[in-house]
Automatic annotation (TrEMBL):
It holds the Pfam family RVT_2. Residues 1-55 are annotated as: Disordered. InterPro entries: RVT_2. It comes from the Eukaryota. Residues 18-46 have a biased composition (Low complexity). This is Reverse transcriptase Ty1/copia-type domain-containing protein. Residues 1-15 have a biased composition (Polar residues). Residues 140-219 form the Reverse transcriptase Ty1/copia-type domain.
Length: 219
């Protein structure tokens, strides 16, 4: 029958021919669809062009809309960054100081006092000052070596170093003192009572007045 005639094979490949020949915007939907390309055509993938994505299509990075709160431990402090309107360096000047005082300040700031024994032992002057300090403590009988009491903690000691200057800024001497760490003592364990015998001037005058009235000898 004429009406039941099947389509010719030429018509089945006509969409592919139109796809290869068309380069306009209207063929973008067909180029994006891989089902429109025949699997047995080797030249079809080479003929397909993928248009570049415009910059306007790139989505912007998403920013968090979370409300930022101040930490609890900073509520008692002022963390606002303030701009100094009148900086100190613009109002402080050493031009009015005398030359001798300026040289004194320069000499004092040019030497750093050591804060530990490991720093002081490198200086020969401080090593000599420490030897003199130990010799003076031994000569005065400052301590006596005994057996440590049972259950008692020994109080440590430390070195304190100081550099003495003359009025012109030159170094007069290096000072080293060996002191006990009294702040490590615990009340009730290392000591019980604290006292500081201090005599007022009024008390001294009364004592001298009584001694003069009775003819006593004052030692």
């Amino acid at each position: 029958m004429p009406s039941s005639k099947s389509p010719s094979p030429r018509n089945t490949h006509s969409p592919v021919a139109s796809l290869e020949l068309s380069h306009g915007p209207s063929s973008s939907s067909r180029q994006d669809s891989p089902s429109s390309l025949p699997q047995d055509s080797p030249s079809a993938p080479d003929a397909v062009e993928h248009p570049s994505i415009p910059q306007t299509a790139v989505e912007a990075l998403r920013r968090s809309d979370r409300v930022r709160a101040r930490p609890k431990h900073l509520e008692a402090y002022d963390t606002t960054v303030h701009t100094v309107q009148y900086p100190l360096s613009a109002h402080v000047s050493y031009s009015r100081l005398t030359p001798s005082y300026r040289s004194f300040l320069a000499a004092v700031t040019s030497h750093d006092e050591p804060r530990s024994f490991s720093e002081a032992v490198r200086h020969p002057q401080l090593r000599e000052a420490m030897i003199k300090e130990i010799a003076a403590l031994v000569a005065n009988g400052t301590w006596s070596l005994i057996q440590a009491p049972a259950g008692k903690r020994i109080i440590d000691c430390k070195w304190v170093f100081k550099i003495k200057y003359r009025p012109d800024g030159s170094i007069e001497r290096y000072k080293a003192r060996l002191v006990a760490k009294g702040y490590t003592q615990v009340e009730g364990i290392d000591y019980h009572d604290t006292f500081a015998p201090v005599a007022k001037l009024v008390t001294v005058r009364c004592l001298l007045a009584v001694a003069a009235h009775h003819g006593w000898f004052v030692h």
